[in-house]
UniProtKB/TrEMBL annotation:
Residues 24-369 form the UDP-N-acetylglucosamine 2-epimerase domain. NCBIfam families: wecB. It is an enzyme of class 5 (isomerase). Its EC number is 5.1.3.14. Pfam families: Epimerase_2 (PF02350). It catalyses: UDP-N-acetyl-alpha-D-glucosamine = UDP-N-acetyl-alpha-D-mannosamine. It comes from Novosphingobium panipatense. This is UDP-N-acetylglucosamine 2-epimerase (non-hydrolyzing). Keywords: Isomerase.
């Protein structure tokens, strides 16, 4: 009898990091894969489902405008519990640190169904940076059966928390699988990523800075500072900024107010994954507070300035391709200017480096699952 694996996700980054696992599960006759999306994100999730060719078996459609953490979490917990009662999975998979992942793990635990954690063991050791993700990861880690750690650093963090060593496996991060998959798709069908051509023409001859920003702990003053920094950098005639703005209204209102109407700043809608991969390819520098972008940029040899005080992904910083710059506007401007004006500083950071994985993480995860079910 095949074992039934329920894969749960709800936001853009979870979808990107789990589609390769879903593809691998669906290709494996030993396992039955059932996909449940919470739709904690709606449009930004659907963009990924479409490109990855995944039709969910269950869709909770929970997203509400400007949702609060408590309403969201309550809806997720009850909704995911109902799906589990209907599907009766043998095991559940969650990814990362979102409200969907935490609620999925809790609902599984309440039913005594083993829950396996993809991207386990990331820790910043600061409960409020990133918030609420640091707590979400720890809560999931307390209940998980198998912990799929992306790197040795994350494995070591789990071992320090006394997780039994035989439950922790270093697999690499599935984001590299996703990036390699989308890169191959673009090579096969270049039109998948050709939608930026007009902007590329308009900005030709300028160096492109790709920007993303969405962290809850940066709402308010942090977002204002980021907007001020981008406005300041845009005074340079030799740069152009491409900024796909997250759909969270707390991000959009600040960025639209501060940056709309500037000639060399393109505030655009969230890009689908092939177009975001294109943005990474054409950017000279990435400026971001995203988790996933911190992992993708080093893989492509793009210097990435991380607008956070701490990171649960120190591997990029240790490899030299990522640098923590916080959210002080003056500091961000100084750091970008250094990279633009000092070619030695730029070259030091611009080295392709893959501390986060080799693109084979999903295959390892599926093998480990199949092995676990056999025993
Ligand atoms: C969530 C995750 C965060 C992750 C981020 C990735 C939690 C608590 N937060 O943060 O860990 O890093 O996603 O992007 O799990 N919205 C839309 N359409 C969309 C997506 C969002 O309109 O497709 C708007 C809605 O108004 C929604 C709001 O954004 O209420 C916030 O979404 P939410 O998932 O609560 O938080 P994020 O800041 O996106
Ligand atoms: N991304 C995307 N389109 C965009 C911005 C980001 O496809 O317009 C991808 C990016 O390549 C990365 C992921 O979304 O894989 C990161 O998601 P986000 O920054 O929303 O969340 P985080 O990683 O911080 O949890």
């Amino acid at each position: 009898m095949t074992a039934r694996i329920l894969v749960i996700f709800g936001t853009r980054p979870e979808a990107i990091k789990l589609f390769p696992v879903v593809h691998a599960l669906k290709a494996d006759p030993r396992l039955e894969c059932v996909v449940c999306v919470s739709a904690q994100h709606r449009q930004m999730l659907d963009q990924v489902l479409q490109i990855a060719g995944i039709t969910p078996d269950h869709d909770l459609d929970v997203m509400q405008p400007d949702q609060t953490l408590d309403t969201l979490t309550a809806n997720l917990l009850t909704g995911l519990g109902r799906v589990m009662d209907a599907v009766k999975p043998d095991r559940v998979i969650v990814q990362g640190d979102t409200a969907t992942a935490m609620s999925g793990a809790l609902a599984a635990y309440y039913r005594k169904v083993p829950v396996d954690h993809v991207e386990a063991g990331l820790r910043s050791y600061n409960l409020y940076h990133p918030w609420p993700e640091e707590a979400n990861r720890k809560i999931i880690g307390a209940m998980a059966s198998l912990h799929f750690a992306p790197t040795q650093t994350s494995q070591a963090a789990l071992l320090r928390e006394n997780v039994p060593p035989e439950r922790v496996h270093v697999t690499g991060n599935t984001v590299i699988d996703a990036l390699q998959w989308v890169t191959a798709e673009i090579a096969r069908r270049p039109s998948l990523a050709s939608g930026l051509a007009e902007l590329e023409d308009r900005f030709s001859g300028r160096r492109i800075i790709g920007v993303t920003s969405h962290r809850r702990e940066n709402f308010g003053d942090g977002m204002e500072q980021i907007a001020r920094a981008v406005r300041h950098i845009a005074q340079r005639p030799d740069v152009a900024i491409i900024f796909p703005v997250h759909l969270n209204p707390n991000v959009r209102k600040v960025m639209n107010a501060a940056l709309a109407g500037l000639d060399n700043v393109a505030l655009i809608e969230p890009l689908d994954y092939p177009h975001f991969a294109r943005l990474l390819a054409i950017s000279t520098v990435m400026l971001t507070d995203s988790g996933g972008v911190q992992e993708e940029a080093p893989a492509l040899g793009k210097p990435v300035l991380v607008m956070r005080e701490t990171t649960e992904r120190p591997e990029g910083v240790e490899a030299g391709t990522a640098k923590l710059v916080g959210t002080d506007a003056a500091r961000i401007v100084t750091e970008i200017s250094t990279l633009l004006d000092d070619s030695a500083a730029y070259e030091t950071m611009a080295r392709a480096h893959n501390p986060f994985g080799d693109g084979q993480a999903s295959g390892r995860i599926v093998e480990l699952l199949a092995n676990e079910i056999r025993h």
